[in-house]
Structures are given as structure tokens and as C-alpha cells.
Design a protein that fits this description.
- Keywords: Membrane, Transmembrane, Transmembrane helix.
- It is a single chain.
- The termini are close together.
- The chain is mostly helical and 54 residues long.
- It contains 2 helices and no strands.
Length: 54
């Protein structure tokens, strides 16, 4: 259970970081922003999948 909690915390930290990076429009054009959102949703789906599996 502790391992799962630490994994979830890491995933959420990464998601928050990706969202913050995505907000910096000066550094990211539309395509790069889109890739970040795809990665964000994929990591969210993966987290749910792993939680159901284990």
C-alpha cells in the first residue's frame, strides 16, 4: 500500500509539472502542447489501469 501511495504521488507530481510546462506558451507551440496533454491523459489512464490490476 505504501508503494502504491508513493507511486501515485510521483505520478501526480509529474502531471502537475506537465500542466505547468504546458501553460508556458512562450516555450511551447501548439503541437508540443498537444503532445504534453496526450502524455498527461495517457499517464492518468495508466495509473487507473495499474490500480485496478494490482
Amino acid at each position: 500500500m505504501n508503494q502504491k501511495n508513493s507511486l501515485l504521488e510521483k505520478v501526480f507530481l509529474v502531471m502537475i509539472l506537465l500542466v505547468l510546462l504546458g501553460e508556458q506558451e512562450r516555450f511551447f507551440d501548439w503541437m508540443e502542447k498537444r503532445v504534453i496533454w496526450i502524455l498527461w491523459w495517457w499517464s492518468l489512464w495508466l495509473m487507473v489501469f495499474l490500480e485496478r490490476r494490482f
